[in-house]
Amino acid sequence: MKHQGYNRLSMSSQKTQRINQLGEFGLIDLLNKMIVEQRSAVNNAPAHGFRLLVDTGDDTAAWETVKGTELFTTDTVVEGIHFTRSTTPWADLGWKSLASNISDIAAMGGLPTYALITLGLPPETEVEDIKELYRGMLEISNAYGVSLVGGDMVRSPVVFITVALTGYHPAKPMLRTTGKAGDKIGVTGPLGGSGGGLRLMLHKEPTELAISQESTEYLKRCHRRPQPAVDEGRILANAGIATAMDVSDGLADDLSKLCRASGLSARLYSEQIPLHTLLKEAFPDQCLELALYGGEDYILLFMAESELMERVMPQLEQGSVVGELFSGEPGRVVIIDGSGKEIEAGRGGWDHFA
Questions:
Q1: Which residue from 260, 262, 278, 145 is spatially nearest to 211, judged by alpha carbons?
Q2: How far, in Å, CA of 279 to CA of 45, rounded?
Q3: What is the pTM (predicted TM-score) of this model?
Q4: Is the Cα dihedral 291, 296, 300, 302 positive or negative?
Q5: Whether residue 95 sits in one domain with residue 33
Q6: Same domain, 277 and 326
Q7: pLDDT (tens digit, 9 = 90+) per residue, 183-207?
Q8: Does 6 reside within a domain?
Q9: Residue 3 within any structural domain of the chain
Q10: What is the tally of structural domains in the chain?
């Protein structure tokens, strides 16, 4: 049964209580109360005139709109496909499920506003686990000015989470289709950390990797708690950048997608790709591969002509120029190594149906 808002309020849960004991409506009541009580007073929508008219708890949420560009994105994570409970605690799963959507809004140069959450849950799921899931969602939503305003809940053999998120841009959003031959390629931060964290956690004997505690904590944090580049997106948009996307499936694959959309090819210079010191310490022989194909870094990939790139780079704390676009086979990406050798980039990023 669908509930656009999580209807009815109050109900307590015991730590070992399962959702089939509490029931759908009891769980909806619990989450609804949790959202309202823990939502931050600060969010992006009211600042831009999107005043909330109907909050969670009715058939739909409703808000006013204003002049500008409204953005809308959705994403789903499925247990066994995108995450496992052994590598992703419930609170971190809540954070990540919203992070990917917020990153999509950031890639357009926008600000995230309102989110609807759909949960698919096995009936034996513990209530405390779902509360932890929502603690993570509330942490990131409050950090980025997002309001959770309702959703849906269904029985499922595995856990899945679908987030639908709106956003706002005061003018024209950045796109994938506007790249031009000769444009420089930039990124807003280091790459490969999330892939390194996943590789570390999936290793059967992580102690054999001889990775420092500092590197271990950094890499796990990159994978479990990625930081969408909303501020960087606004900097790029305000500077006049027209072409951008977020890096969710790996730098090489996402750059190939942008090149296909713009009808161009690209060169990446391996020695210019930013790699965090702790990633290089942990995986000295694999760090570049992780940067190119690891995915889920959620930094921004963007293009601009040389003069504009020179103006915008000082405004980014961790920005780097990593390559250039050129006329050629749409979607082709080549990597130039330190000796000048040209290597064809393979498809190593995430593909649902590969």
A1: 278
A2: 37
A3: 0.86
A4: positive
A5: yes
A6: yes
A7: 999 999 999 999 999 999 887 665 5
A8: no
A9: no
A10: 2
- Residue 67 structure tokens: 């002049």
Please give the C-alpha separations between residue 327 and each of 26, 52, 146, 259, 354, in angstroms, as whole numbers.
Answer: 58, 47, 40, 10, 28
The reply to whether 195 and 164 lie within a common domain is: no
Cα distance between residue 185 and residue 182, in whole Å: 9
**What secondary structure letter does DSSP report for 126?**
B
Strands of the sheet containing 69-78, edge to edge, are: 69-78, 160-169, 111-121, 147-155
Examine the domain organization and report whether 95 and 205 are in the same domain: no
CATH number at residue 328: 3.90.650.10
Identify whether residues 236 and 147 lie together within a single domain: no
Q: Which tokens hold the place of 68?
A: 């500008």
Q: Which domain holds residue 321?
A: 184-344
Query: Which amino acid, residue 153?
Result: M
Within 13 A of 62's CA, how many CA atoms are on the CB side?
5
CA distance 239 to 262: 21
Distance CA 229, CA 281 (A): 25
Look at the chain and count its residues. 354
Bridge-based pairing state of the strands 300-304 and 243-246? antiparallel
Same domain, residue pair 245 and 137 = no
Helical ranges in 78-226 per DSSP H: 90-107, 127-144, 193-202, 213-224
Per-residue pLDDT tens over the stretch 297-339? 999 999 999 999 999 999 999 999 999 999 999 999 999 998 8
